[in-house]
Amino acid sequence: MTTERSLVIVKPDGFHRGLTGEVLRRIEAKGYVLAALKILTPPTALLQEHYAEHEGKPFFEPLVAFMSSGPVTAVVIEGEDCIKGFRSLAGATNPTEAAPGSIRGDLGRDWGEKVQKNIVHGSDSPESAAREIGIWFPEL
Ligand code: DAT
Ligand code: MG
Question: Is 11 annotated among the ligand-binding residues?
Answer without folding.
Answer: yes
